[in-house]
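Practice problem: predict the structure.
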Amino acid sequence: MKRTILASFLLAAAATPAFAEDVATPAGAPVAASNPEPLPPPTGTPAPVAEPVVDDSSSTVIQHGMIPDDVIYGRKGTREAGASMGLMMSSKFRSVSLAPSYGFFIADNMRLTGILAVQSVKANNESAVTYSALVEPSYHMPVQDKIFGFLGMGVGVAYEEALGAGLAIAPRLGASFLIGDSGVLTPYLQYQYISHSEMSENDIETVAMRSAMTVNVGYTAIW
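Answer:
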């Protein structure tokens, strides 16, 4: 009897590990891999990213007086040659002038111009012709793509037959409109002051001053 109970106990103890092993890992069940394979790379094109919209509606306006990249006017080394005409008329006064000129931009926005002018003036029943030669430094400020404002001060010598030679000062203010690739239309106002020294019959020196405001239009070519 005792041998039968002992044999049964030993048989149960020997079967217990096998049963536990069968429960932990059933026969035929897949075993999880310790190092899973990486996922395949995504396919297809990524969604586009929206770019910021730049408002260039004011691109024609020049900021801080900068010359546009595609404009040679106003740049150092640019040359300019042409002529201008002026006319003023009233019931008792008439003034007509013609002034050829040659200019050279010695720096960006800075031009040095030589001007030769002939002016015919008639007041009441008297008339006179004045010849003048001026050197004018001027500053040119870009306003838009093809529009420049400028201010110049001409200084030189004027000659009139009756009064002789005298000092001439001619400031002017105007605008330059670029036409095509090489043309410049320039309307401007000019005030001219001429001081002559003449000798009277008593050999007393007097100073005769003449001044006039004229409206002028010029056309020049640049290269």
